[in-house]
Amino acid sequence: MKYNIWVRAATLLWSLSITAAQDAPAPYMQVPSQRQLEWQQQELYAFLHFGPNTFTGEEWGRSQSRPDIFNPTDLDTDQWAKVLAEAGMKGMILTAKHHDGTCLWNTSTTAYKTGNGSWAKKREQDGFDADVVRMAAGSAKKYGINFGVYLSPWDIHRDPAMPKPGLKGTIYDEPQIFGDSSPGDYNALYVQQLTELVTMKLADGTPIELFEVWLDGASGSDTVQTFNWTGFRDVIRQHQPNAVMWGHQGPDARWVGNEDGFTLPTNWHTISRTQDDVHYSGEELEVGVRDGQYWTPAESDARIRDGWFYHANEPSKSGAALMDMYLKTVGRSVNLLLDVPPDTRGLIADMDAANLKEFARLRNATLNRNLVTPDLKTSASSVRDGDIVSYGPAKVIDGSNDTYWTMDDGELTGWMEVDLGSSFCVDGFIVQEHIAFGQRIGRYEIGAMVEGSTYRAVVSNGTSMGYKRIDLLEKGVETSRIRLRITQANAVPLIQSLQVLGSRNCTGPL
């Protein structure tokens, strides 16, 4: 009995000591919300610009064509979702209303909608749904990808500065309420449209679930319209609390600063202005602000073709070009929103689909070659409180998003190693910071052991780590051990993951 009491007491003391030693590092500066974390993990998804511009050859819809112009011959939103899912894309964002003002859903706010065109009327007569937004959302759900909407704040159809001679005398000749000096309240109209979208129900009666709402700030008019951004955001938060709101600089995600599918090597997840403040320049947004006041990670909106809408004479980017774009966005901790516009048939074009398929093949061939497995031996310069169970370097290779290697507070530099078990040809790395507690790391390098016991730096210019960094080598190196060194951080670094890419030897092609 005395022995059992002693054992219980010792066990309790040991448990208490372990509990005390497992205090996690405090969050550093700004940290992401849960919806921002989940959004960041999407990494790659599609933009679908589709509407009257698809048939008029325009980008902004200044012609103000009647809804009859919208006439896809073989519209199949299932094909969109299937092509995108097979390409490894995690979602799609549809232009529910672009700048021209035509609504792709059965809105009650305007007659200027595809539902009033001959295509939709014929489809409904045949017993089919003609609400393009609802159809696309249902297809996304069917194929297991996320769905989002783009609703343009600028509305040419309601803008008195934009001529509309072709609509005069028709039901589409509607009041011009866009602009602070115009009669009526455009913000109220926009709130109605937004509310319809965020409360939409699918054909089976289930509520729509949005992962992102795109609030574009572009305008090609001199008309001054003060938008009620706060009211718009309140509607989204109320009905779609898990949806990330994209704007030039937030509130949840920001523009990357260009539309060319790249960001600079250094990119911080924080900035120090909101959507309601004076806008940063594109160059400033490409970098962000280290230790900024708001967690506002970047999204890169780019195109598979030259324009946003489908134009038959434009080339489609090759799989290799898309792979390069991916490495310069997702590989630098920025989400990639790739525009893949449906054609006049209402399908993703055959060439675009083929290039997306090749893009997926290249990603898999390049990135799905991780040599690290959870059973490998690891070591580190130090471990937080000596607690290797909770914070040891093995946490970096356990495959979990919730664990990490870290050191004691105040230790801003350090290293961890992975023994690969035998010699491999290593030609790339994927590293991730545990951003749930903030972005801390400003510089890192990766070394490979060569010539017995000497480490040679093969990645020497690692910068802002953040959510994910992909570093590919120009030439593979034969090695059996890898060392990740943190050479600068503003708080104790937290390393969530290290993947080592390679093959058995360097004699063949990489």
From TrEMBL:
The keyword Repeat does not apply. The keyword Aminoacyl-tRNA synthetase does not apply. Transmembrane segments: none annotated. GO terms for molecular function: hydrolase activity. It is an enzyme of class 3 (hydrolase). InterPro entries: FA58C (IPR000421), Galactose-bd-like_sf (IPR008979), GH (IPR017853), Glyco_hydro_29 (IPR000933), Glyco_hydro_29_N (IPR057739). It comes from the Eukaryota. Residues 1-21 form the signal peptide. Residues 360-503 form the F5/8 type C domain. Keywords: Glycosidase, Hydrolase, Signal. Gene3D superfamilies: Galactose-binding domain-like (2.60.120.260), Glycosidases (3.20.20.80). Its EC number is 3.2.1.51. SMART domains: Alpha_L_fucos. PANTHER family: ALPHA-L-FUCOSIDASE, ALPHA-L-FUCOSIDASE-RELATED. Belongs to the glycosyl hydrolase 29 family. This is alpha-L-fucosidase. It comes from Apiospora hydei.
